[in-house]
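Subject: sequence -> structure tokens, single chain

Hey, anyone have a minute? Need the predicted structure for the following. Not urgent.
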Amino acid sequence: MPGLTYFIPLIFLLLLTLAGLFQPPSLRRPWIWTLLPAAGCAALDLVLLSLLPILRLSFGSPDLPFFLFNAARLLLTLPFLATLLFFRKRPVRFIPAVSAGLQVILSLLAGYALYVEPFHLTVTLPSR
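Reply:
Had a minute. Here:
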């Protein structure tokens, strides 16, 4: 299980989600629905990384990959939040859906990168 330091991006995502409760009513729902998928997919990353040693696929520490996955999620979510803040009076309705779709794609790529791709490596020898 990763140390507390590696949870900082996830904690920041959750704090941003809670900050959505204090947004104006027109912004509250899109704000929260932009951040909840990111937090849920971040929790899924922790599950994916924690299962690697249990399944005897990898025995490295999940700390740094977990931190980097969540830092990337946070950095990709911030422009969506900035867009919501910029259009505060009339939030763009598709922002939460695009953000959630991006988070799901990142989770699928993480699952592929952790469980599929490492076991399909091939070596190409130069032709003579």
